[in-house]
Amino acid sequence: MEAQTISTKKNAVSYGVLLGIVLTLITTVLYVINTALLTKWWIGIFTLLLAISFGIVSVAKAKSLQNGLISFKEAFTSYFITIAIGLLISVVVNILIFVVIDPDAAAFLQEEIMNMTKGMMEKFGAPEAEIDKALEKMAEDDAFSAFAQLKSYVFQLAFYSIFGLLIALIFKKNDPNAIA
User: Which domain of life is it from (predicted)?
Assistant: First the structure.
């Protein structure tokens, strides 16, 4: 049983590293092609689905490594390790790009996000005072600072964990011969 747990965790680490590499490639390619693409909502949806898919594959592989039997805890652990490592690699690369290598790109993206926010708030008929207040708050907060990105990482882990709990519930299959 101990060997299965170790191989399950190795599996999750492998998928996590792979997820991190894929997310890094996406960010890097979009950064090189057109930095403004990083503000598009569909990129966020795509990366969300991609990360969840990696988590699902990790849990499915873990289950197969254990002959089709996996506890809720083992399934969730496999999913969580995959997501945590993949997102951490992505965050580290984002910090390198937007804090160390090219802080001007971060300033550009911050401005783009503020313009998008203003447009959306105007579209929904928000009062000018509320729009100004929201934009002022956004201008004060550097969403691309290392601290902000690490804070975002923690919130992303919590968000992705909700999906992980559901996935673990779906994939769990306890040994019917085990003594409770």
Answer: Bacteria
| Longest CA–CA separation in the chain, Å | 66
Determine contact, residues 28/93, Cβ cutoff 8 Å.
yes
Report d(CA 163, CA 104) in Å as an integer: 35
Contacts of 30 (CB under 8 A, 6+ apart): 37, 38, 43
Q: Please list the alpha-helical segments (H only) found in 34-97.
A: 41-65, 72-95
Cβ proximity of 87 and 160 under 8 Å: yes
For 127-163, write each residue's pLDDT tens digit. Answer: 888 888 888 888 888 889 999 999 999 999 999 999 9
Which residues touch 21 (CB under 8 Å, ≥6 apart)?
A: 89
CB–CB of 135/117 below 8 Å?
yes
Distances (CA, A) of 4 to 8, 77, 119, 152: 6, 13, 53, 33
Burial profile 106-138: b = 16 or more Cβ within 10 angstroms, e = fewer: bebbbeeebeeebeebeeeebeeeebeeeeeeb
Looking at the chain, how many residues does it have? 180
Q: How far apart are CA 98 and CA 145, in angstroms?
A: 8
- Whether the CB-CB separation of 84 and 159 falls below 8 Å is answered with no
